Amino acid sequence: MKDSLNNKCFIQAGSAISPQATFDSDDWSRQLIASDTNRMECIEPAYAAFIAPNSLRRMSRLLKMGLTTAMKCLQEAGITVPGAIITGTGKGSLQDTERFLKNIEEYSERALNPTPFIQSTYNAINGLIALQQQCTRYNNTFVNRGFSFENAMLDSLLYLREHPAETVLLGAFEEMTAEHFFIKERAGYWKPGVNNLNFLQQGNTPGSIAGEGTAYFCLSNQQDSSSLARLRDVEMLYKPGAEKLRSSLQQFLSSNELKVEDISLLLSGENGDARFQQYYDAVEAALGEVPKLPYKVFCGEYDTSTAFATWMASKLMGSGETPLTVSNLLTKPYTSLQNILIYNNYMGDQHSFILIQKA
C-alpha cells in the first residue's frame, strides 16, 4: 500500500483491556504481571461506570469488555458519535457461541433462548456501540483470523481518505474460554508448564502462550496537541517465504520514504513457537541493530494481538518515555522514538507490517 492512501491519520486516543493493568492506570508500565499458567486472562475493570446495570447483567464477558473499551476510548477523545465504527475479530464471542451450542443439545433444539445466538455474532459489539452512541453511520466488522485487525485498519484508512473531516472508531476484540483453550491445547497450540515470563526461553519447541484482549482507537485526519501518534501504513502478506518477507519489508519501508536506520523500535510478535521463528529471524536480520521488544509477553498469542501492539506503540509515542517494563525486555535501548514497526505472523500464514510514527 502506498503512502498516498494514508497521507494523514492520527491516533487521537486509545484504550485497552488486557492481561496487564492497561485500562484505568499506567501500572502496566511499571510492573509486568505474571500469569499463573500458559493462559493469560484479562484484568477486567468495573463495568458499571460505562454500562447501565440492567444491560450489564444480560451481556457476556467479551461484550462487556469490548463495549467498555470503546466507551473509554470515545470518552478520552471527547467524541460522542464517531463517523464510522470498524472492528476486527478472529473468533468473536466464544462464550456465547459455546452457550448456544450447549443449549441446542440440552433442549433438543426446542425453546431456545435467542440471546446467546444474537450476542455470538461477530458484529454484536459494533451494534451495541452504535445503539449506545446512536451512531447510524458506516459500521463494519472484519473476520479474517490473523488479518482481522489489519483489514479493519486498512478500511479505516480508506474511509478517512473518502471522509477527511470525520473520525473513525477502530477496534479489535478476542477472548479465550476454557473450552477453546482446551481444544487448541490438544492441537498443540500451547506450550505446557510455562507463563508469560518464560515462554520465549523455550523457543526451540512448538507452541505458545494463550492470550486475549480488546483495544480501540479514535482516528482522525486532523492533528492536534492531544494526538498520540500517526498511523502511517499497514501491509499484509499471505504465506511469504523468508526471502519474500525480507524484500517486502524493504519495499514497505521505501514506499514510506524510510530506510532501516530510520526505524526506532521493532515491536515483534515473536511467540516462542519454533515452527514460525524463522520469519521473525528474517525480519530481525533485515533490520540489523534496531532495538526489539517482544510484545506478546504482555498480552499472549491471539488472532488480533496486533491491536494490543498498536495500543502499546501509541502509548510509547505519546509519553516519550521508556517504561520500566519495556526497558527490561528491550534487546538494546532506544534513544528517541520516531518510527515504530510492528511485525507479526499468525500461524506462519498471515504476516503483517504496521508503521506507527511520531505525531
Query: What structural class do you assign from the helix and strand content?
Result: alpha/beta
Assigned CATH class of the largest domain: Alpha Beta
- Indicate the CATH topology of the largest domain: Peroxisomal Thiolase, Chain A, domain 1
Query: How many E strands?
Result: 10
Radius of gyration: 20 Å
Q: What is the helix tally?
A: 12
Mean pLDDT: 94
Q: Order of strands across the biggest sheet?
A: 3-2-4-5-1-6-10-9-7-8
Number of domains: 2
Share in β-strands = 15-25%
N-to-C span: 20 Å
Secondary-structure blueprint of this entry?
Elements: E1 10-17, H1 53-56, H2 61-77, E2 84-88, H3 94-106, H4 115-120, H5 124-133, E3 138-142, H6 148-162, E4 167-174, H7 178-186, E5 213-220, E6 229-238, H8 242-255, E7 265-268, H9 277-287, E8 292-294, H10 296-299, H11 305-319, H12 324-327, E9 339-346, E10 350-357
Parallel strand pairs: 2-3, 2-4, 7-8, 7-9
Antiparallel strand pairs: 1-5, 1-6, 4-5, 6-10, 9-10
Description:
Helix 2 packs across helix 5 and helix 8 (242-255) packs across helix 9. This protein has helices spanning 53-56, 61-77, 94-106, 115-120, 124-133, 148-162, 178-186, 242-255, 277-287, 296-299, 305-319, 324-327; strands spanning 10-17, 84-88, 138-142, 167-174, 213-220, 229-238, 265-268, 292-294, 339-346, 350-357. Strands 3-2-4-5-1-6-10-9-7-8 form a ten-stranded mixed beta sheet, sandwiched between helices. It folds into two domains: 9-220, Peroxisomal Thiolase, Chain A, domain 1 (3-Layer(aba) Sandwich); 229-358, Peroxisomal Thiolase, Chain A, domain 1. The model has no long low-confidence stretch (mean pLDDT 94). The chain is an alpha/beta fold and 359 residues long. The protein is built from twelve helices and ten strands. 34% of the residues lie in helices and 19% in strands. A hairpin with a 3-residue loop joins strand 9 and strand 10. The chain is globular and about 60 Å long.
